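User: Let's play a game. I give you a shape written as tokens, and you guess the letters that built it. Ready? Here's round one.
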């Protein structure tokens, strides 16, 4: 009988591969919104919209009334700002003494606040133009004729239970990255026009939407238009409305339009009436 001595391979390479794979899986993945905080801070902008309007009375047309709203946005290209539609587009109706009244908008001014305070203690502004907004999703794009610092990592889709980050920028220079969780996709159940809280005077239709993003953030005023990002730094929504918690318009629903216009006008090639 002949005995053959088997030669066993060393298990060391296999063990090393397993250790490396385990380390790769367990090492926390980078959180882009935290890593890119300075860039996001510089890209955030504060937006004001003033508009004059009138409405019909028994005696005829009312005297013009001027209203001013405030919101936020983020520069996604040197000349392009992403925000919420209702921040920069006037409503078709307002509530006067809890009665919904159709209005006739006469003039609209949309302005962006400068980053620095003047010697007199206030922020200067520069004009912006609404070049696109979606009729169903509360999203709009602004064009500015000056170059802005911008942040862009693309657009992603939100998933239930996903950790996300809301960029809240007020007073132009400050920025808070608020970590939260997506607690619901879709909003329905009551007519938002009848229960809009502090935004009651400005809504022209329901915000019910099967794709709207619900988060665990409390509803506060002045944050409309601010971006919601995932861990990769992709934009998934913009702040739209509050009903106890903060809801966001889903950007993946308008991804093609946003990317198309960013590539077309984001680098300063827009002229009035060009779209």
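Assistant: Ready! My guess for every position:
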């Amino acid at each position: 009988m002949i005995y053959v001595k088997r030669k066993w391979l060393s298990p060391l390479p296999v063990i090393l591969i397993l250790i490396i794979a385990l380390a790769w899986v367990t090492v926390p993945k980078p959180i882009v919104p935290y890593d890119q905080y300075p860039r996001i801070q510089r890209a955030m902008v504060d937006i004001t919209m003033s508009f004059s309007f009138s409405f019909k009375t028994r005696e005829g047309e009312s005297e013009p009334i001027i209203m001013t709203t405030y919101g936020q946005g983020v520069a996604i290209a040197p000349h392009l700002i992403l925000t919420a539609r209702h921040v920069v587009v006037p409503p078709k109706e307002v509530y006067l003494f809890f009665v919904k009244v159709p209005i006739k908008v006469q003039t609209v001014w949309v302005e962006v606040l400068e980053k620095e305070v003047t010697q007199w203690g206030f922020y200067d502004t520069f004009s912006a133009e609404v070049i696109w907004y979606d009729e169903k999703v509360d999203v709009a794009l602004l064009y500015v004729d000056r170059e802005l610092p911008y942040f862009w990592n693309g657009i992603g889709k939100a998933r239930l239970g996903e950790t996300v980050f809301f960029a809240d920028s007020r007073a132009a220079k400050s920025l808070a990255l608020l970590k939260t969780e997506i607690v619901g996709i879709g909003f329905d159940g009551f007519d938002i026009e009848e229960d809009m809280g502090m935004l009651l005077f400005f809504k022209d239709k329901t915000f019910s939407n099967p794709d709207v993003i619900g988060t665990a953030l409390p509803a506060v005023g002045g944050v409309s238009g601010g971006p919601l990002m995932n861990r990769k730094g992709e934009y998934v929504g913009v702040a739209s409305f509050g009903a106890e918690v903060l809801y966001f318009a889903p950007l993946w629903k308008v991804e093609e339009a946003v990317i198309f216009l960013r590539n077309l006008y984001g680098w300063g090639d827009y002229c009035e009436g060009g779209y």
